[in-house]
Amino acid sequence: MIAVEHAHRRRGGILIWLAMALLMIAVLLVGGGLFLAHNIKVREARDGRDVQVETPFGSVHVQHGNGSRTAAIGIPVYPGARLIKDGESASVDLSGLVGDKSLQIVAGKWETSDPIDKVQKYYEDKFPDMNMVQHNGRVEMHTIHVSGKKVISLSERNGGTEIALASVGEPKAN
Fold it and tell me: Residue 174: what pLDDT?
């Protein structure tokens, strides 16, 4: 009989410790969530095209439709090409989240009335070391360096060429 009472007490003690541990975990999760909610700041331009998010761990800056930032891609825009529309370009600066490293994603789309083979030749001459894949009226060129990845994507569009340029890695030096 004494052994049964001792086993019940021990089981009751384990259940109390387990309940206390679960309660502590719940308090930590709620406290952490409240801390993050209180310390995350979002700044947005009136037009919604420029957003800065600051957290205790770093910041992220997103600019949408900022055609003037496309020089940061580090790939020249084909001569005479026009930005398809302002909303087709964007930059994301993740440098604040990756410590000492600078990390930026910049992309945009342009169009030209020139045929795809002429545009392809222009970029092949500029970047002879890029890897190239051709399929179904599209040409994709890319290169990976220590500083990041650059991508050129060409596709036939309305008798001309759509040009998509993207860069992921360290921001281009000004």
Answer: 46
Say yes or no: 31 and 55 in one domain: no
State whether 52 and 100 are in the same domain.
yes
pTM equals 0.62
Q: Report yes or no: 137 and 118 within 8 Å, Cβ to Cβ.
A: no
Sign of torsion over alpha carbons 47, 50, 53, 54: negative
Structure tokens at 73: 């891609």
Q: In a 10 Å sphere around its CB, with 0-12 CB exposed, 13-18 middle and 19+ buried, how is residue 11 labelled?
A: exposed
Q: What is the pLDDT at residue 171? A: 61
Assess whether pLDDT exceeds 50 at residue 68: no
Give me the mean pLDDT over the 27-56 stretch.
Answer: 75
Report residue 131 CA to chain centroid gap.
23
Domain count, the chain: 2
**Domain of 7, in residue numbers:** 1-39
Residue 152 lies in a domain: yes
